[in-house]
Amino acid sequence: MDLDALAGVIAYKPTGDSVATVTAAVDRITIENPLTEICDLELSGQVTYCTGRSSMEISLQVAKAAPEGQKPKPEDVLITCAFTMVSLDPVTKK
């Protein structure tokens, strides 16, 4: 799964399927630590900010997969990024 698709999946939960959600902007992609070994990755994210009724900021994180039940250590975080997603009415496109 790519980062844009992950942001779309995260935006789907609060908006549902009655609107079309599109990527308005990729605000930032920050490489925190380089990937130096082959390993499993964990992609996570959440809605961090909503503006009005149609826009939201989604924050994503890519980290080396931690053992089950544990959070990744700061040195295991590889990438952080923020996407702005906008919901449109599928009929009027407004």
Secondary-structure map:
Layout: H1 3-15, E1 20-31, E2 41-51, E3 55-64, E4 77-88
Antiparallel strand pairs: 1-4, 2-3, 3-4
List keywords for this structure.
1 helix; elongated; 94 residues; four-stranded antiparallel β-sheet
Structural class: mainly beta
Instruction: Give, in spatial order, the strands making up the sheet with the most strands.
Output: 1-4-3-2
- Run of helices and strands: HEEEE
Identify the overall geometry.
elongated
End-to-end C-alpha gap: 28 Å
How much of the residues is beta strand, in percent?
Answer: over 45%
Amount of helix: 10-25%
Query: What are the low-pLDDT stretches, counting only 5+ consecutive residues below 50?
Result: none
Taking the sheet with the most strands, its summary is: 4 strands, antiparallel
The tally of helices reads: 1
The radius of gyration over CA amounts to 15 Å
Rounded average pLDDT? 90
Quantity of strands, as a count: 4
Structure write-up:
Helix content is 14%, strand content 48%. The chain is mostly beta strands and 94 residues long. It has a 4-stranded antiparallel sheet, covered by helices on one side. The chain is elongated and about 50 Å long.
